[in-house]
Each structure stands twice: as C-alpha cells, then as structure tokens.
Amino acid sequence: MLQIMNIHKTFNAGTINEKHALRGLNLQLAPGDFVTVIGGNGAGKSTMLNAVAGVYSVDEGQIFIDGVDVTKLPEYKRAKYIGRVFQDPMMGTAADMQIEENLALAARRGKTRTLRVGITKQERESYREQLKILELGLEDRLTAKVGLLSGGQRQALTLLMATLQKPKLLLLDEHTAALDPKTAAKVLEATQKIVEKDNLTTLMITHNMRDAIAYGNRLIMMYDGHVVVDVSGEEKKNLTVEQLLNLFSQASGSDEANDKLLLS
Questions:
Q1: CA–CA separation, 85 and 204 (whole Å)
Q2: Potential cystine with 84: which of 94, 112, 113, 171 (Cβ 3.0-4.6 Å)?
Q3: Is 12 helix (H, G, I), strand (E, B) or coil?
Q4: What residues contact residue 60 under an 8 Å CB cut-off, 6+ apart?
Q5: Neighbours of 22 (CB within 10 A)
Q6: Which of 172, 233, 242 is nearest to 200 (CA)?
C-alpha cells in the first residue's frame, strides 16, 4: 500500500544550516499494516510523513501509494489517497462550525458539489453512529460548535473526519502529544478501533515508547534519516522499553542515541 524507495531529502543545501534529513530511506507497508514510528528529535520521522503527504518534494527516490507513483504529485492531488491528523488539535476542524457540519465537510470532500443544502436525516444518523465509536458522548451533541469542545474531543473528531472516506493511507503525526495522558489514552483507543474496523494502512509517529509497543502490528525506529529497527508480530508484542533501547543502541552504534530518544 505504501512504498518508499531510496528517499533523500536535504534542507538548506550548500549552506551552514544544511541538514540531510532523509538518507536513502526505504520502507514498505502492506495493506492493513499499522506501523508505529519512533526515534529521537531530528531522526527524520516528520520529514518522512511530509514527504509521503507531498508537503516536501524529495531530492531523490520514489514514493508509491497503492501502486500509484505519487513522487511528483503536489500535496492537493495526493490528498485523495491520504487521511492525516496533526499534533495540534485545533488544526483539523473548523471551530465556528457544528460537529455535524464538520463531518459533512469531511464526508463530501472531493465529491461533486450540488445545489442541495443542509444535512439529510440519513447523513445525521450515519454521523451519530460513527461518533459512538469515540465513546465521548459527541453523538448527542451534533449541533454543538466545535470550538466549545476540549482538545481531546477535537482531536478525536479530527481522527474521525480523516477516516470517514477510508483513505488508502492514514498518517498520524504525534496526534496525542498535546493531550493529557488520560485523554491521549482515549484517543489512542479510538484510533485502534477505527484502524481495525476499516483495516486502514497506518503510519503513527509517537514519542511514547510504551504506546509504540502497545499499538499496531509493526514498529520501526528511525535514526539519522533512515530505519534502524523494524520489528513485528510476536517479537513486537513481547518487547520491553529496555529491550527497545538496547535494539536502538545496537542499530545506531551509540548510547547517545538512547539518551536522545529518552529525552525527546
């Protein structure tokens, strides 16, 4: 479903601030893979997601989504393949619109506009059922303005909006980092349910090693612009944080890498 082949990306090339963010990155995701991504600051995690989404063009290499070469496609043309949730809960929703209006916008994205206005009874029932998955009581607040919701509720709503049209690929860029631990756990549970229900191919960046181990069927660790650890199945299930740190220091050849990961 996703193929990243020998991707290179350098920022500020030829200047004192030159940063080689991705160094021959290779990664393949099978349909339905839920991959957690971990690594220290500057490892290239967000650059990878932005390269896949088309926010950054790459210097070298190719990116395929479901067999389609999207390497040269601009961000807006890749949007039909991708659902994305950012770290900031305020980014994915329109605060001055109602919950049901936000959902209607997401559901109709990319579809032909008609003269019909408003939300039908059938659509409203569909949104109510979808919102029940979040277990936040939002199904009883369809006409509430989104600006009145908490950060966690907004992020859960953004997650639902990003997955309403069942994207080929779901990108989660530390989508629980700005939330308190209890709310973050709730949003992660909702994430797991939605991903499993629709068998969505997912890349989730997290700084929380326990979450990286607990969620998904595969875990990759990045360091210095490429993947240094890639574990899945039983091996991933049985991992401990200590073992993960040991794997990291072996793969990167540095204890400093451990400190970087823990501190971040």
A1: 10
A2: 171
A3: coil
A4: 6, 7, 8
A5: 25
A6: 172
As beta bridge partners, residue 223 has 226
Which residue is listed with tokens 């181990």? 213
Residue 76, judged by CB atoms within 10 A of its CB (0-12, 13-18, 19+), counts as: exposed
32: left (phi over 0), alpha (psi -120 to 50) or beta: left
Sign of the CA dihedral with 156 first, then 93, 140, and 144 last: positive
Q: Name the burial class of residue 116, with classes exposed (0-12), middle (13-18) and buried (19+) by CB atoms within 10 angstroms of its CB.
A: exposed
Report pLDDT digits (tens) over 75-133.
Answer: 989 888 999 998 888 888 888 888 988 998 888 776 655 545 577 888 888 889 889 88
- In sequence order, the 6+-apart residues with CB closer than 8 A to the CB of 146 are 93, 94, 95, 96, 97, 98, 99, 102, 154, 157
Stated pTM of the model:
0.89
Q: What are the angstrom distances between the C-alpha of 177 and each of 48, 181, 187?
A: 18, 9, 11
Cα dihedral across residues 119, 122, 128, 132: positive or negative: negative
213-226 confidence digits (pLDDT tens): 999 999 999 988 99
Report the alpha-carbon angle 251-3-160, nearest 5.
100
Q: Cα(117)–Cα(173) distance, rounded to whole angstroms? A: 34
